[in-house]
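Dear colleague,

Thank you for sharing your sequence with our group. We've completed the structure prediction you requested, and as agreed, I am returning the results in plain text so they can be pasted directly into your records. Please verify that the sequence below matches your submission; if there's any discrepancy, let me know and we will rerun it promptly.
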Amino acid sequence: MEMQIEICSRFWIAQIGLSISHRQFLLPSLTIRPFMTNAETNAQKVGTELASLESLPLWPEKIPGAIAERGPETIRSEGCYFISNIHEPRLFVMLPSKETANGTAVVICPGGGYSGLAIDHEGLRVGEWLNSLGVAAFVLKNRCVPYQHPYPLMDAQRAIRIVRQHSAKWNVTRDRVGILGFSAGGHLASTASTHFDDGDQESKDPIERKGARPDFSVFGYPVVSFQATVGHTGSRNNLISQDAPQELIDLLSNELQVNEKTPPAFLFHSKDDSAVKYRNSEMYHEALQKHNIATELVLFETGGHGYGLGQGETAAWPKVCEDWLRKTKLIP
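Please find the predicted C-alpha cells below.
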C-alpha cells in the first residue's frame, strides 16, 4: 500500500491507497512530490539566479528619498518574472570570462512602465548575451512606483558611477560604460543619456565623484517622449503623475533634451508596437542626427512590444547591435 501526495501552491492533490482493519489505516510508505506550475518553476529559477549573482546596494547607507512605510517587495510570476514595490535598489553583476572580457560595460534597465521591472527577459537574459560579446553587464534593480522622479534617475546615475568606481575590480574601461534599456527602462536609459553630470568633486563619497554620463546607449522599443501625442501614458503617470506641469513633461521628453554631449545610440522598435509608438525611437534618432552624433535605428515591421532578445523577425536585433558596437569600436 502507498500514499502519494502532490503539493501545489494553490491546492493539495491526494492519491491514497488504503487498507482498513478495525478502523486502522495501514500506511507503510509515504512519498511527497512537489508540484508547481511552469510560472512558479521559472520564478524559483530566476530567484535562485539573482541570489547567486554578486550584487551590491546602490546606497549602502542612507537611501535618498526612502519611504518609511514600505511593505514587502512583490514578485509576479504569471506572464513574466516581474518585481515591484522595490525600496532597496541594487546592482547585479554579470561578468564575462577573463579571457573574453574586452573592457566594455553596460548598465541594463529592464522595462515595466515604472510600476516594476521585468528583470528576467529584459535583464538577466540580456546580460548573458552581453557576456557572450565579452561585455560586462550590470542589471539595475531601480525604484519604481511608489517612487517618482527623480529617484529612478538617481538610481541609474548611481549605477553608472559605481561601475566606474569599481572599474579595476571588474576589468572595465571607464570611458566605455554604456546604458541599455527596454520600454520604460528605455525612458530611464534615455533620461540618463540626456541628464547627467561630471560628478561632485567635493563629495566625501568617492562614488559620487565619478561622472554619470554613459559613453553610449542602446534602446529597445523605448518610451522616449512624454508628449501627449506619442508618449506612453502609464509610464508618464507613474513617474511624474497625471497632473504634471508641462515644464516637467518637456524636461523628461528626452528627444527635446539631446545636445552635442549626448552619447551615440543604437535603437530598435517594431512598427506594430501598440504599447509604445515607434515614433519615440524615430524622434530620438532624428535628434541625434541633427547634432551629428552617431546613431542607428532598426525598425521591424512586426514584433509588438516587450520581446527582450527578440523572436521571429525581431530576433535579428542582437546581431545588428553587435555589428554596431564593433563599427563604433566599443567592442573588438
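Summary note from our side: The first strand starts at residue 3 and ends at 7.

Kind regards,
the structure core
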